[in-house]
Design a protein that fits this description.
- The complex is a heterodimer of chains A (310) and B (275).
- Chain A contains 11 helices and 15 strands.
- With 310 residues, chain A is of the alpha/beta class.
- Chain A has 2 domains: 218 residues, 3-Layer(aba) Sandwich (Rossmann fold), CATH 3.40.50.300; 59 residues, 2-Layer Sandwich (Alpha-Beta Plaits).
- In chain A, the strands form 3 sheets. Chain A has a 6-stranded mixed beta sheet with strand order 7-8-9-4-10-11, with helices on both faces.
- Chain A starts with a strand and ends in a 19-residue tail after the last helix.
- With 275 residues, chain B is mainly α.
- Chain B has one domain.
- Classes of the chains: A alpha/beta (310), B mainly alpha (275).
- At the A-B interface, helix 3 of A face helix 1 and helix 6 of B.
């Protein structure tokens, strides 16, 4: 669905995107992760033909961008860097104007499609209030409705759950999973690990403009070799597992063991009562922290004598 | 897209406010003129004001003369300056472009909406001025002895039909003049995310041009200043119509429209939309 080859973008002296090779396949729920200022938004803008690449190639839905972007975009729904609407008009009117502005919008079905999109994002009961009076969360939902108006094959969403409350985040997640099952490819850029971890099937991690990792989420979450155990017989277990214990906190034990199944058998055969037993997997957070550096919003002092970062 | 731009134009409270203010100024002046104890004596004062006092149906021309130097260009600069920069600042530009709306198409739609605004504003100024003029000063039937007839600046008498044609010519000429100026603001609007900045830039051009016009040392460039022929529409009220300046003015404005719209297009179609 999206392929980029050695894609780079330079703004004056800053290399915002640095030879990125991105592969988003049809049916993916792709999480594009990276710290603030790592070039996520610039890349999303290039996919939509808003920003022109300095070098490299982009293909979206099998067609080159920006050359044939006009053929691509009618099948793409996008939410880029927060929603935007005309503040003095109602949400419905904003959607109708946006729909009328582009190609392939049937005037007869417009009202129906606008209602349907509003319904999907939980704004079905919206009145004639101008967008100016909307809360941030309502604006975010309206922006999503705009992206869903034409039932796109590909959704490109930049931080779609911004400003939503936990309930709203969950609704959006369920909506996206539902759309994905119905055949929509979802490309989601975010710096929220939990969001990507709960929603996505594949992740790309970008750091300082470079794509440092692109993999299936399940392949990333490899076992760490540690097992978390809860047992009321902790003292006996500690004696049994001498040398393999990493941490004890009351009834809670952290044990390093290569084979969780064997460990479990060992404990049960020794007559221990086990209330919790979890082989630990790498969290996405651990993966991201391993491959990325500090976000560009942190500015450390440069050592004037040594010349390097402190 | 053109229809969308026009709908956005009429749905905008700010646009109606500026049109209202444009109509209010001539109305206010008319009320002062009608109630003043000392009207300008015959043969003195502005030729137009004198004629207007005798015949209210000439008041639309006087009203245009009142709003043309500052207020109309101000309204045009604000609207045109906001056209691309405003969408950019509010973020709606990125959604329009990824809808997708072609960049050239968007710019043409903006130009057409600008033209529609100018026509609408001038038409409403003319209509309100005609109504207030006739209501406050009469139709001049008493003075000339022939209902609806007025005297041209050259002294010959014009019938209502001829007056209407000349008024239409005037409106057309002013629309073109304002469009020539508005396109400058539109170009500035593609350079920045600040609608205010673009409007102020265009007004700076207007003021510079007005200042240079009065400066003898600037005589060589005078025929190319955007404001130079703005008042040439007065020639529509001479008999016969004095076409020389009108034609030059139309040609000059056409030049401005082509050059600045071209520049706006060249800039906008290659620019990174990062807002």
């Amino acid at each position: 669905m999206i392929v980029t080859r050695r894609l780079s973008k330079r703004f004056d002296r800053v290399l915002a995107v640095d030879s990125v090779d991105l592969h988003v396949r049809e049916g993916d729920r792709y999480g594009f992760l990276g710290p603030n200022g790592s070039g996520k938004t610039t890349l999303v803008r290039m996919l939509l033909g808003l920003v022109y690449a300095t070098s490299g190639e982009i293909e979206v839905l099998g067609r080159p961008v920006p050359k044939r972007v006009a053929e691509v975009l009618p099948e793409v729904g996008a939410l880029v860097e927060g929603p935007a609407a005309y503040p003095h008009l109602s949400g419905r009117r904003n959607l109708a104007l946006l729909d009328a502005a582009g190609p392939g919008s049937d005037r007869r079905t417009r009202r129906h499609r606008v209602d349907e999109a509003l319904e999907r994002v939980g704004l079905a009961g919206i009145d004639r209030r101008p967008v100016r009076a909307y809360s941030l969360g309502m604006r975010q939902r309206l922006g999503l409705a705009g992206a869903l108006l034409r039932k796109p094959r590909l959704l490109i969403l930049d931080e779609p759950t911004n400003a939503l409350d936990p309930q709203g985040i969950r609704e959006v997640r369920e909506l996206l999973i539902h759309l994905n099952r119905a055949g929509t490819t979802v490309f989601l850029s975010s710096h929220l690990l939990a969001e990507v971890e709960q929603l996505c099937t594949r992740v790309g991690i970008v750091d300082r403009g470079r794509l440092v990792l692109e993999q299936e989420l399940t392949d990333l979450r490899t076992p760490t070799g540690r097992v978390l155990i809860d047992t009321p017989d902790a003292a006996a277990a500690v004696a049994l597992l001498d040398g393999q214990l990493e941490l004890r906190d009351g009834d809670h034990l952290v044990v390093r063991h290569p084979d969780p199944a064997a460990l479990n058998t060992l404990l049960v055969n020794a007559g221990m009562r086990i209330t919790g037993f979890t082989p630990e997997r790498r969290t996405l957070e651990q993966v991201v922290l391993d491959v990325t550096s500090t976000g560009s919003d942190r500015v450390d002092r440069i050592n004037p004598h040594g010349g390097g970062a402190l | 897209m053109i229809g969308v731009e026009l709908r956005k134009l009429v749905l905008r409270p700010r646009m109606w406010l500026s049109v209202f203010l444009l109509c209010a100024l001539p109305t206010l002046v008319a009320i002062f003129l009608a109630t003043a104890d000392f009207p300008p004596p015959r043969g003195q004062g502005g030729a137009f004001l004198n004629a207007v006092l005798r015949n209210g149906s000439l008041y639309p021309a006087a009203a245009l003369a009142l709003v043309l130097p500052v207020f109309l260009p101000l309204a045009v600069a604000v609207l045109a300056g906001d056209s691309v920069a405003g969408e950019s600042a509010s973020g709606t530009l990125r959604y329009l472009l990824s809808r997708p709306v072609g960049r050239s198409r968007l710019l043409v739609a903006k130009l057409i909406a600008l033209g529609a605004f100018i026509v609408l504003a001038i038409a409403l100024v003319v209509i309100t001025a005609l109504a207030t003029g006739v209501a406050l000063f009469g139709t001049g039937a008493e003075a000339v002895g022939q209902p609806g007839a007025i005297t041209s600046l050259s002294g010959a008498t014009l019938g209502p039909g001829a007056l209407a044609m000349r008024l239409l010519g005037t409106i057309g000429y002013i629309v073109v003049s304002m469009l020539g100026f508005g396109v400058i603001a539109l170009f500035f609007s593609t350079l920045t995310d600040s609608g205010l900045g673009a409007a102020l830039g265009a007004l700076a051009v207007l003021i510079t041009s007005s200042v240079l016009e009065t400066l003898d040392a600037a005589a060589p460039i005078k025929p190319y200043l955007p404001t130079n022929y703005w008042l040439a529409w007065i020639d529509f009220f001479r008999d016969p119509i004095f076409w020389h300046s009108i034609n030059k003015g139309l040609l000059l404005q056409a030049g401005y429209i082509v050059v600045f719209f071209g520049a706006a297009w060249a800039n906008f179609s290659t620019k990174d939309v990062t807002s």
